[in-house]
Design a protein that fits this description.
229 residues, single chain, mainly alpha
Length: 229
């Protein structure tokens, strides 16, 4: 089984299923009761890292069976979308939110910055990364890896909202009412006003700097050069 597509599927299944199971309220609460909050986070982090390494290794040894031929036009899609994904990633990691790790302890406050676009900026960054790379690669192994990551990101959005609603009750209301999962939906519906100033140039430039770094390091990371030699 090693070095086959089935091996990669098994790794991805354990990676996704493990995240879903460990994050589910009954399992999470039981483990927190047994290990404490810090102990649970350590366990979750170790599991996530170990299974991610397994997924990456399984992808590296999986056969590349083409589904659709490589098209230069498709190769340009990640180059166009990834700057946005990198800005979402940086802004999401640097903006305090009730949807981030430990966010259930935060007081309700009006949405600001990137949260006025979507309350799940980090997960949208992962989802966009997965979707555009699946499109650009077009082989079975890449679809398993990248679509699997995108699926986990979308499942995470649904699960976090459900968990916060169960945990916080009425305190979750202001966040749910003034933000949206789908980017720009809350602003279009008039439930919030886009806060470009709250996102700020430092976060935007930080995202673009991350994008530039990924371009330069892409050959080392993925074995594919994106810049002319």
């Amino acid at each position: 089984m090693y070095g086959t597509l089935q091996y990669l599927l098994a790794a991805m299944f354990v990676f996704i299923a493990g995240h879903v199971i460990l994050a589910s309220l009954p399992v999470r609460q039981g483990l927190i009761k047994a290990l404490g909050e810090k102990g649970f986070r350590v366990l979750f982090s170790v599991f996530a890292l170990a299974t991610l390494v397994w997924v990456i290794h399984a992808y590296g040894v999986a056969p590349r069976t083409e589904i659709w031929p490589a098209d230069p036009a498709l190769r340009h899609v990640p180059l166009l979308v990834m700057p946005l994904a990198c800005i979402l990633l940086v802004a999401g990691l640097t903006t305090r939110s009730m949807t981030m790790v430990g966010g259930e302890t935060m007081d309700a406050a009006p949405a600001t910055g990137i949260l006025t676009i979507t309350r799940h900026p980090f997960l949208w960054a992962v989802a966009l990364w997965g979707l555009v790379h699946a499109l650009a690669n077009g082989d079975h192994a890449s679809l398993v890896l990248f679509l699997g990551m995108a699926l986990l990101a979308f499942l995470g959005m649904v699960h976090i909202d459900h968990r916060r609603e169960r945990q916080l009750g009425a305190a979750w209301g202001p966040m749910a009412l003034t933000t949206s999962v789908i980017p720009f939906q809350a602003a279009i519906q008039g439930r919030c006003k886009l806060d470009w100033a709250g996102i700020g140039w430092p976060r935007t430039l930080g995202g673009l700097a991350l994008y530039a770094a990924l371009l330069l390091a892409h050959q080392w990371i993925a074995g594919v050069a994106l810049l002319p030699g």
